[in-house]
Specification:
single chain; elongated
């Protein structure tokens, strides 16, 4: 008799990762060196260079690193987390293409990017093409764009690389005279490419007259489960959110003999893979790590490429009784402090950043990295969207400190007539 394993969603849900089968969950089989000097993947097939596999592997390492950084950040500790590492990696990879020196080294190391230009660029191009290939059962797409100050000159090589390898075509905007209108234009682009799920990615005042370039990525997914949950079976149940504390949530149920899913467990962890419908049978799935105790420790310790690959390899299709919560998350992050703490502070320093690959000068630095992500999980399936914006502004910002004598005038601007004039030698004297 087949043993029926009970997978209960009334404990603390740890993680929902949307994994693309085309990238084998990002566990690439080759041993290409990243810009950090470390291999981005295992050494299974070192003679088979695969840019997409290396990019996917580096992206997943970045995902685990960023998860840990956000999970320990006091601003997010104890709360829900949801983000798209691929969206963030894509926008910052385009930034990396314009970085030089220490700035490039740090960005590349944090993102675990392949150091080889061809592998990196062909890898992102191949992944983007695969994600945008489409399916009769689900919607999945991603897009990049550059938004440049219309009076500012960027190097043709940088613009060409962004367009050729990342599909990021440039649009000129008037950041100097119309920063707010420019921000709204960029936000509308994001809304259109995420089915209006990501609104106001760039918050008010994030673009100002010193902004010279904005790099954006948007990603959108909507798919149905291979086996949908019966909405009539959904019922209100308790979800433990802490010691002695519960909330009531709608819990979906799959308990029949046809509830067969890839499943595995360890002494401390239950692992379930819930696939989305795909015309070829090899597409995307949600992988859920559920600790057997209420603490997230067991699940978060599994967040590295090797351990996660081992868990996925141990999955066996079997009958599973599932109770899983419906939920919606809509979260936003400002990432400069997190990324700086992860090892790329130079890009945010106006006196040290080197983005000269963009414009031939060292005047630019990253003034903001914004990320917003949305997910809705229900009986039919999942809708998820995310977007990232990287803002680069002038690095040579004038400092006006009037701490010594000065001359001042009050003028009528249209005519230029001087109405008042004076000097201040000692502000304390009458």
């Amino acid at each position: 008799m087949k043993r029926i394993l009970i997978f209960s969603g009334i404990g603390i849900l740890v993680l929902a990762l949307i994994l693309a089968g085309l990238a084998a969950a990002g566990t690439a089989p080759q041993n290409t060196t990243s810009v950090s000097g470390e291999p981005v993947a295992g050494d299974t097939h070192p003679d088979t260079p695969d840019g997409a596999g290396n990019v996917a592997a580096g992206n997943n390492r970045f995902a685990f690193d960023l998860y840990r950084q956000l999970a320990t950040d006091p601003a997010y500790a104890g709360g829900n987390l949801f983000f798209s590492p691929y969206s963030i990696s894509s926008a910052l990879a385009i930034t990396y293409e314009g970085a030089r020196g220490t700035t490039a080294d740090e960005i590349g190391a944090v993102l675990h990017l392949p150091a080889n230009d061809t592998l990196r660029r062909e890898g992102f191009a191949a992944l983007n093409a695969a994600l945008n290939r489409g399916s009769g059962n689900y919607t999945l797409r991603t897009a990049n764009a550059l938004w440049a100050e219309e009076t500012y000159s960027f190097l043709p090589d940088y613009i060409d690389v962004a367009a050729r390898w990342y599909g990021a075509n440039v649009t000129n905007l008037d950041f100097i005279e119309n920063p707010e209108g420019s921000r709204e234009t960029i936000n509308r682009w994001v809304e259109e490419r995420t089915e209006d799920r990501i609104r106001d990615l760039l918050p008010p005042n994030s673009i100002d007259p010193l902004t010279r370039l904005v790099i954006t990525n948007a990603i959108y997914f909507k798919g149905t489960w291979v086996e949908e949950f019966d909405a009539n079976e959904t019922r209100e149940e308790e979800f433990r959110v802490g010691p002695g504390k519960t909330v009531t949530v709608p819990m979906m149920q799959r308990t029949g003999g046809d509830a067969v899913y890839p499943y595995a467990e360890t002494e401390t962890l239950q692992v379930l893979e819930m696939p989305y419908a795909h015309e070829s049978g090899n597409g995307l799935a949600m992988l859920v790590l559920l600790p057997k105790e209420d603490s997230l420790t067991a699940a978060e310790e599994a967040l590295d490429a090797e351990r996660l690959a081992g868990l996925r390899e141990s999955l066996i299709a079997q009958n599973v009784r599932i109770s899983f919560p419906k939920f919606t998350l809509d979260v936003g992050y400002s990432l400069p402090s997190a990324l700086a703490a992860m090892g790329m502070p130079t890009a945010f320093a106006d006196d040290a950043a080197d983005l000269s690959g963009m414009d031939g000068t060292k005047d630019l630095f990253i003034t903001g990295v914004f990320h917003t992500a949305f997910i809705d999980v229900n009986e039919e399936g999942t809708e998820a969207a995310a977007a990232t914006g990287v803002i680069a502004g002038r690095g040579v910002t004038p400092v006006f400190r009037a701490d010594h004598p000065f001359v001042f005038l009050i003028v009528e601007k249209d005519s230029g007539a001087i109405l008042f004039m004076g000097r201040v030698v000692n502000p304390e004297s009458p």
